[in-house]
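Researcher: I'd like a structural prediction for the single chain below. Treat it as a standalone chain; there are no partners to consider.
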Amino acid sequence: MYAIKRVFLIVLDSLGIGALPDAAEYGDEGSNTLASVMSSDYFNAPTLIRLGLFNIDGIKAAKQSEPIASFARLAEKSKGKDTTTGHWEIAGVVSEKPFPTYPSGFPDEIIDEFMRRTGRGVLCNKPYSGTQVIKDFGLRHVDTGELIVYTSADSVFQIAAHEAIIPVEKLYEYCLAAREIMTGEHAVGRIIARPFSGIFPDFKRTARRHDFSLSPPSDTLLDVLKNNGFGTVAVGKISDIFAAKGITRSLPIKNNDDGMKITIELLDEDFTGLCFVNLVDFDMLYGHRNDIDGYALALSQFDLQLSQFLLKMHKDDVLIITADHGCDPATASTDHSREYAPMLVCGEKVKQGVNLGTGDSLSDIAATVAEIFNIENKLCGKSFLGRICYGN
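Model: Treating it as a single chain, here is the predicted structure.
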């Protein structure tokens, strides 16, 4: 048995560390999100470096002589490179088939049924930037009440609507209708509500985005923990990604900074189990907008808060930091990239400086957390706990 009471699992959404061997099949050959971010003059991450980020295989930077964490490079075994697939794999479910995408927009039968269900027309229906789509179609939407429907390179059906024209709760109803429509071969990973406000040409997206995800096809780490009486605290969009399955408590956040503040505050609470955190700003605000400096500044701010987190950790806490995919801000693409994920593991019970090499699945994390809590399970992945942790 390992005397570990809590695991804090933080996903730096999109912080890939180099192209996977099959990246060319996804149009992502040569992608390296971390390398691109490190090229910025604003990159400053001494805490991550001290943990051993630069010691991970494949990262070309000066190694830390005595890293205080154990570390690894993890491949994504699932087919795809989207948020849902990556998080499900982190939680022990490997997706053998990628979610459907719509580079030419959604087929007529989908749009026709959506219009029938909502009683409203549809604008756009093609892959589009989320900020640009409201600039280009927002005024017509306000004038006509037609819904802005768009997608991206990811498996998403997104609906944008002005809060003064379509109340947010009504927009959520429309998303639920789309979720019912998008089944079978059209079962996209997420239906996303994208409310916005303001007056043309200064429309701005609001914070009341909501994701309506597919339910995982089988039990995840969250289900396994909850079914065995452990707490599962979801911070950020984790509850959305897992369709609220297996979660005992969900804490929404405003942004990365707020997410880390909430996570640090949770260190003062008494619970046994997993705190699963998603910090989406890296991906949503910077990766998708090819903002290298913004990404670097956000990572530097996280690093500062990480130093505060480490100081407050209890002796029976373990911290795992990883990513779900890449989103290289230096490439011509604004979409996710097929990359390795970093993994850093630290705590008083964790050996320092152990290089776990390259793991063949993000689900090794799930297998390891399950072993920490001594739970029998059928999750994918191979536990690395015996290689990095001290026993009682």
